[in-house]
Structures are given as C-alpha cells and as structure tokens.
Amino acid sequence: MNELAVVTRHTGPRIPPSVTAPVPLPIIRFVNPDGTLTEAGRSQEIDTDLARALYRHMTRSRALDREALALQRQGQLALWLMSWGQEAAQVGSIAALRESDMVFPSYREHAAALYRDITPAQLFAQWRGIAHSGWDSQKHHFHIYSLVLGTQALHATGYAAGVKMDRSDEVVTAYFGDGASSQGDVNEALNWAAAGTLPVLFFVQNNQWAISTPPAVQMRTTLTQRAAGFGLPSWHVDGNDALAVHAVTREAAAWVRSGNGPALIEAETYRMAGHSSSDDPTRYRNPDEFSQWEARDPLLRLEALLKATGTSRSFFDELDEEAQAFASSSREACLRLADPDLADLFESVYAEPHPVTSREREQFIAFRADLETEH
Amino acid sequence: MEADPRVMLMGEDIGRLGGVFRVTDGLRDQFGAERVVDTPLAESGIVGTAIGLALRGYRPVCEIQFDGFVYPAFDQIVSQLAKMRARSAGRIALPIVIRIPVGGGIGAVEHHSESNEAYFAHTAGLRVVSCSNPADAYQMIQQAIASDDPVIFYEPKRRYWDKGEVDIDGLTGPVEPLDKARVLRSGTDCTIVAHGPTVATALAAAHAAGEDGFSVGVIDLRSISPLDLDTITLAAEQTGRLVVVHEASTFLGIGAEIAAAVTERAFYALKAPVLRVGAYNLPYPPARTENEFLPDVDRVLETIDQALKF
C-alpha cells in the first residue's frame, strides 16, 4: 500500500457533468409521406414550380439508376451503387446551391451529379471500368467521386479555406454518409472548418446503412448533436422530403455564405438497394424495414403533393416519357463508351517527363506489338 | 478461436454480413458478437483499438475490407503497432494480425486492387505474409494468430474462388514455419519467385516454358518479411537465373530487395541479372486495362527468355 495514497471518502453533494449531448430537436418535415402538408409545411409557402422541377430531376435520376442496375446485371457495368431512395436528399440540396458553389461528393451522388449536367456516360465511365472519373470537375463545380470514405470532407475544407482567402462568397458542400462520419478525416474536417470559420456546408445523407452496419453500431448521438460539439449549427431534416431539404439547405447555405462559418445538415433517408450491385442486403436487413421506408418514398410523396395541388396528369405522362427516353439514351451512351488504351494512361501520371513511366510506356507498346505479331 | 478465447475478430461488416468476401461467414453466430465485432467504419480506429485490446491481453485479428482502405490506419500500423515492442525494450507484445484482401484481377473499381506489401515490409517490427492457395490460407492464418509479433496477412482476392484440399486435422505431418518459402517445382534453367496471386501465374509460365523444352522452377515466397533468402539463394545457385513476379509495381518492390540480396549472396553463380516482372509503375488503372497492366504468363515468359538469352 502506498503510504501517500489519499483515501477518498465522498460526503459532499454529487457533481453532475457540465455538459451532456444536446437534446435532439424534432426532424424538419414539410410534406408527410402521404403528400399532405405538416404544420411546418402549411406555414411555408409551397412553391409548386419548384416542387415540379425537383420531381422532374428525381424522376430522371431514378430512371437512370434502374437502367444502370440493368446494365450491370447484363455485364455492361462492372459495378453500380444505386442512389434509389436518396433522390430527395440529393436533388433537394443541390438545387438550393448556386451553380458556382463547389461540391465534393462521395460516390453515390448520382442524382446530384445529374443535376449539375454531368451526363450518364460520364457517370458510367467509372463503373464500366474505363476511367477513374468521367467529368471535368471545374466545369461542373462538382469534384470527382471519392471512394475512400470521408476523405472529401477535408478536401472541401481546404477548398473553402481558399475561397475565404480569395474573399469569395462561394459555399463549398461536402456530401458524406453516416458510415463515413466514423472516419477521422470527417471529424478533423468538422473541427478544422469550425476553428477556421470556413464556408463549408457538410451535408450528411444518413441512409441508415453502412454496407451492413446501422448507425446504432456506429454512433451514440445524431450527427446534428455531434456537430454541436464541434461548434457548428445544424439542421436535422427528413431527407425524403425534397421541399424540406431544399428549404433547409437554402437556409444553411445562406448562413455559410454570410461568413458565419460551417454548418451541417443531417438528412434522414434510406438506401433502398444494397450497398452496391455486389451486395446482398437480405443477409442483414429486415424486410419490414424496407417496407416501412418504401411507404416514405420521396418520389411518391412529391407526386401525391403535386396531384393534390392541381398538377395535371399530362405533366406526369410527359415526364414518364422523358425519363424513359433518358434511360434508353443512357444505355446507348454506355454501350458507345470506348475502352481505354493502357498506353495513354502512362501520360497522365506526372506533369513533367518521368524516365520510369516513359521507358515503361515504350516497353509496353513494344511488348504488345510483339504479342500481336506472334498471335 | 476454439483453442484460445482471447482470439477475437474485428472489422467492417465482418459479423452480420460475414465480410464482403464472406471470409468470416458464420463466425459471429458461433462465437458471438463480442468476439466477432462489427466496427465503426474507421480503419485507424480498428488498428488503434486492436492495439489497446492486445495491451489488455486479447489477440485481435483485424480485417481491412480492401487493400486500398488500409492507409487511414498507416500511422497506427507503422508508428504504433510495428514499434511498440522495440519502444518498450521488448516488454510489450502486440500479437495482432491484420488481414488484407489484396491485389487486382477482379474487375474492381479504384482503390480495390492495390498491392501495398512493400510499404509494410519496409517497416521493421512487422511480419508480412502472403498466401497463394487454400491449404496455406488455413495453416498460415493460424500460425499468424499464434505469433507474438504483429503480422500483416495478405489474401489474394482473385484466389478467393479457388478450391483445394485443406488438412484441418493435421494428418499430413508437421507444418512448415510461417517464414519459410516453398519450392513448388524445381528446374535447372531458371527459377521464378512469386507470392500470393502471382504464384498461379508463375506455375502456368513454368509449365508453358517446359513445353518449349526449358526447365523452370517456381518458389512460393509465402513470407515477404522476413524473406527466406536461403531457399531463394539455393535456387539461384542451382539455376543461375531468377525471375521475380509480383502484382506490385517493380520500382522498390519486393523484387528489388530479392535482386539485391541474391546479388550479394550468389553473385558468381548468376548467369543473368535477377529480372523483375511486376505491374507498370502507374496508379492502378481502370479495370478494363488491368489484364495488360498486371503481369501475365506472356510477360513472365518474355522475361524468362531475356534471362535465358543473357
């Protein structure tokens, strides 16, 4: 026994913790799953033109998603990760940003990418295995996909530091998911952006599943509660309600654009498909859960609202035709994609001439020519 | 896990799903969620907390879901896991295994086809092994778990679908040590040294060379760090020609170390320089080009030709 050890005998009042996680606020929702307005929705002026525009983009995106899955099943794509179910979260948010606002996506942001005029062929290039990315990120203000989870949150933060130094009023948006929020990079980005008062909007699509792992296994608080700990204001929104997502994003972007520093939006949504075309969600997911979320489908909800507020049948009929034509043209574009030539890839590794890649390129070309002569 | 209750598994999607390659399928049902842990999606967290568990007396077997996702854990592996024993003057053991599905050839999207063994082999304090067939996968994982050193355990993805006899009852006699290479085929003209996914490529090339009248041996390294230089040097002395094949790029790859070591040990026995066949020194390219990017039988044969003509 250490003679100097202090014997503790507590007799005074208990000392409660100074802070516990803030109490989560109710989720913001304007439109109920059946298309009726919530109280919050009734207090807003619902813009039916906006609702139709969002619905149109979401419908096109879903048509593309289905076509892409079919292409994968037919061997035309090596892999596909569906954004099925997350259309409202993606379209609602990106539609509330300016075209000049830079976006750093993860890898499932197809609906957001399409909104920024990235073509199906440009999206497919990566999943067909002919390129690591298919579009000019500067032209679309939409960075290439990030497959190593959460890394883009720091890239967005650094880009935002540049925006701030340039005295620009751009808002930089980082999309990531519930799974990526466990990565160190994401938490470093939240802290860094807050400490530097940087213009970053962190948009979390909590789609309830990180492959087979639900949020309950990954975290104890909501992401909005976590944001509070880092000093970020946040909004917790029904991610399947495109109008609520749009309104909240507009609000958050305005806050960030005014120089107040970063903000976070957590959109509750659902990954209706497996993680990827290689995944089998029946191994870990209860079918009842799927049915519950199917009833909250973001497209059905908006459709019900639009029908109830007088949008004519011809709008839906025309849109169906447009979406079908879009899907079939995307199929043709996919099949037209040309295979890459490995010889070309040696030239995109370094900016300056490099003796190793130069020599190996020559060796490769010579070797291939020899093989062709032999065969 | 049956033999030692302190052995536990941890990784992303390894429990309920059984891992994306189903390597741990059924183990959660058999051993419980406390010993087969679905972790948060955080590789640095997986290795860092495995170190803590090992300090507490457990023997964690970590799965990194894909080769390209190990880098967030690089600091925990290289600065913490590898160095803890030396930093504590030998007092602290970290018996941790890090399983990594590795390599290309399965048509995967970027970051899912990397061969990063040289990074870890370059780090003192780690053992790095690479299995090439089902029987070795079974034996070597048990030896790795039994080792008191940290082991990086590579599982070649494109061999996951291979089937083979596995001696689960130990009937075929004593098992080779984990750090011993295996001579799969002896030759007199040239020896191919390979590991993991390229062992099958090497065997196919040796067979094809045999049909052309050349006697080509094959060594399966099995261990990358340490290298079984005695076995490699003996083959170099017997055939005078070595061709090293791996999926990783050649520049500062394992082949470079083998070439240097064999030159030091068997200089006068060599009839040709030790030649290397690896991936080109590019970031792993889009999958539609990977068949030309990865070493294949044609490239190995061409290199054997070079060695023979030297």
What is the total number of structural domains of chain A? 2
- What would the CATH topology of the largest domain in chain B be? Rossmann fold
Text of the CATH class of the largest domain in chain B: Alpha Beta
- CATH architecture of the largest domain in chain A, by name, is 3-Layer(aba) Sandwich
**Largest sheet features of chain B:** 7 strands, mixed
- Report the major sheet of chain A: 5 strands, parallel
Distance between the termini of chain B: 52 Å
Number of domains of chain B: 2
Give the neighbour order of strands across the main sheet of chain B. Answer: 2-1-3-4-6-5-10
Number of DSSP strand runs of chain A: 5
Query: Which descriptor suits the 3D outline of chain B?
Result: globular
Strand order within the widest beta sheet of chain A: 1-2-3-5-4
In terms of DSSP E residues, the strand content of chain A is 5-15%
Number of helices of chain B: 11
- The CATH superfamily of the largest domain in chain B turns out to be Thiamin diphosphate (ThDP)-binding fold, Pyr/PP domains
Radius of gyration of chain B, Cα only, in angstroms? Answer: 19 Å
Task: Summarize the topology.
The complex is a heterodimer of chains A (375) and B (310).
Chain A: H1 39-43, H2 48-73, H3 87-94, E1 103-104, H4 110-115, H5 120-127, H6 137-140, H7 151-165, E2 172-177, H8 184-195, E3 200-206, H9 215-218, H10 223-230, E4 234-238, H11 242-260, E5 263-268, H12 287-294, H13 298-308, H14 313-336, H15 342-345, H16 355-374
Parallel strand pairs in A: 1-2, 2-3, 3-5, 4-5
Helix pairs in contact in A: 2-3, 2-13, 2-14, 3-11, 5-14, 7-8
Chain B: E1 7-11, H1 27-31, E2 36-38, H2 43-55, E3 59-63, H3 74-81, H4 84-87, E4 97-102, H5 117-121, E5 127-130, H6 134-146, E6 151-156, E7 182-185, E8 190-194, H7 198-211, E9 216-220, E10 223-225, H8 229-239, E11 242-249, H9 254-266, E12 275-279, H10 290-293, H11 297-309
Parallel strand pairs in B: 1-2, 1-3, 3-4, 4-6, 5-6, 8-9, 8-11, 11-12
Antiparallel strand pairs in B: 5-10, 7-9
Helix pairs in contact in B: 2-3, 7-11, 8-9
